[in-house]
Amino acid sequence: MMPFALKFPGLMQRIESDWYGQRAGFPVLWSLEVFDDRLEFQFESGAPAVCEEAEGFVAGLWQKDVGEIFLIAQDGRYQEFNLSPTGAWWSARFRGYRDQECECPCPSVRTTASRSRAGWRAQLSVSCSEIIEWDRFQITAILGGRYFSTGRCEGEPDFHRF
After folding, report:
1. Residue 95 contacts by C-beta under 8 Å, 6 or more apart in sequence?
2. Domain boundaries, given as residue ranges, for the chain
3. Which tens digit of pLDDT belongs to each residue from 102-145?
4. pLDDT, tens digit, 9 for 90 and up, residues 35-88
5. What class is the 15-149 domain?
6. Which has the closest alpha carbon to 112: 91, 89, 135?
7. Whose CA is closest to 78, among 154, 5, 151, 155?
């Protein structure tokens, strides 16, 4: 699945600024690890959540606050996971740039979430058997209408460019 060791598995990493280089002004944290044949993704925002009350597999989560992970294969295929402040989630596989192959309501997905006036935290766990073979990843987020990414931030926001 993953031909490399994650640099800091399980440790919270920080995204310091938004797509346009403006300081976040609040914590934007994430962690990723593969443990016991499961991919574990955690996302945390130090800003109050902007979200619909939703549970389970829900399309369109990116229209409000969301933490995202893109798992990217060498051949350009990728799988996207969205995670909302409520624990609702969505996933799809893509053949290439924005060429969606299918939605993936992975039966093994488990999520947890908590919210307060000070921010939110959500976790997603999925069996490695339900994700594509990947060799790199990108973490992204939409928070209060602002765009954040661990990847390339050029031009207008587009998380599907790697």
Report:
1. 76, 77, 101
2. 15-149
3. 999 999 999 999 999 999 999 999 999 999 999 999 999 999 99
4. 899 999 999 999 999 999 999 999 999 999 999 999 999 999 999 999 999 999
5. mainly beta
6. 89
7. 151
